[in-house]
Write a structure and sequence with these properties.
Chain A: One of its GO terms (molecular function) is hydrolase activity, acting on carbon-nitrogen (but not peptide) bonds, in linear amides. The complex is a heterodimer of chains A (about 230) and B (about 120). Chain A has about 230 residues and is α/β, with parallel strands linked by helices. Chain A is built from eight helices and seven strands, in the order E-H-E-H-E-H-E-H-E-H-E-H-H-H-E. The mean pLDDT of chain B is about 95. Classes of the chains: A alpha/beta (about 230), B mainly beta (about 120).
């Protein structure tokens, strides 16, 4: 599928690196097509566990490292409107729900997106992902003129319940930018990238497809999560 | 961070005893534990910037070490500590990293609040 031109794309995820795996190719393509893209990253991944052995970071020095990596990923994608929202990793579900919805409403009012990309509620595995997705869906639900809402889903039961994703983009033309976005988050992705590159060198088509096909589900308002 | 050297760590813990200090304590399996291993019982706990005043602190056992703090009316302890550091702000940072380099436990003390 070709990626249509949008008025503005708003991407909302909680962790530095959430954008890299599933959507960085889509983000880069939008930017190359002249569509403005805003990425709101809610935390700095302060609670990341990949600190190495021997450790390269401490619990206290990690946020600064991950902030630099996030900036590097934005650069790799060509993204200029990166918003760091100042929440703390692993606490989003405990924030006031209405405050979270208002944060999303303000982002939407400010950017006037024709497309919003976030996680799919109930299919996003990590509690921060779920809380982010809920807040975005609630904010969009209240709108009279709703933008398109594309959601990333990767829970183990996703295929079983949601079926195949209805939006699949081949991002091969920007494969290099996507690789650079993933590499930018090296403190979290080093092990995974090593394994992935090994598989790619062995011609593993499943891994190549995972890398170059970005998959989204259009949110199903008729089966709203609440 | 360095591997725990018991005498150095013990001296560092002693230097925080009898003072109002900010505590950071966490244990975690990571949020994806039950995604990769369905049925895995994922448990953890996280405390940050709670003020304590402990009268006695001890590092015990071979690596991974156990570190316990005795309070006038309570206890704090962490098991699985492998590494430590006194950072540039004078905070005592203890961590337990598993064989793959993932943080499993952290216990930190500071005379000033940790960033929020």
């Amino acid at each position: 599928m070709t990626i249509p031109k949008e008025r503005h794309v708003l991407v909302v995820f909680p962790h530095p690196d959430d954008e890299a795996f599933g959507v960085s190719g889509t983000i880069t393509t939008h930017i190359q097509q002249g569509t403005p893209v805003t990425y709101a990253c809610l935390t700095l991944g302060e609670m990341g566990r990949n600190l190495g052995n021997p450790p390269f970071a401490t619990r206290e020095s990690l946020p600064a490292i991950r902030k630099k990596e996030l900036l590097a990923s934005a650069k790799a994608m060509g993204l200029t409107d990166l918003r760091m929202m100042g929440l703390r990793d692993k606490t989003i579900e405990f924030e006031d729900d209405e405050k979270m919805v208002r944060m999303m409403e303000e982002l939407i009012e400010d950017t006037n997106p024709s497309l919003i990309i976030t996680f799919y509620p109930d299919f996003a595995v990590h509690p921060d992902h779920e809380a982010t997705a809920r807040a975005v869906v609630r904010a969009v639900r209240r709108m009279e003129d709703r933008p398109k809402l594309h959601c990333v889903a990767f829970a183990n039961n996703t295929l079983e319940v949601l079926g195949e994703p209805d939006v699949v983009y081949d991002i091969k033309p920007v494969r290099e930018q996507k690789m650079n976005s993933m590499k930018a988050h090296i403190s979290q992705t080093a092990w995974m990238l090593e394994e992935m590159e090994h598989k790619l060198q062995n011609g593993d088509t499943e891994t190549e497809n995972w890398l170059t096909l970005e998959r989204f589900y259009t949110y199903r308002w008729d089966q709203d999560f609440e | 961070m360095e591997l725990v050297e018991v005498n150095q760590l013990q001296a560092a813990i002693d230097s925080f005893a009898g003072k109002e200090v900010y505590l950071h304590l966490e244990t975690t399996n990571g949020s994806y534990a039950s995604h990769f291993n369905e049925g895995f019982f994922n448990a953890g706990a996280f405390i940050r910037n709670v003020v304590i005043n402990f009268e006695l602190g001890k590092v015990v056992g071979d690596s991974p070490h156990r570190v316990g703090l005795k309070l006038p009316q309570g206890w704090v302890y962490a098991q699985g500590i492998t590494h430590f550091e006194i950072d540039e702000e004078g905070r005592l940072l203890l961590a337990g990293h598993d064989g793959t380099g993932k943080l499993a436990v952290a216990l930190q003390l500071s005379e000033t609040p940790f960033s929020y």
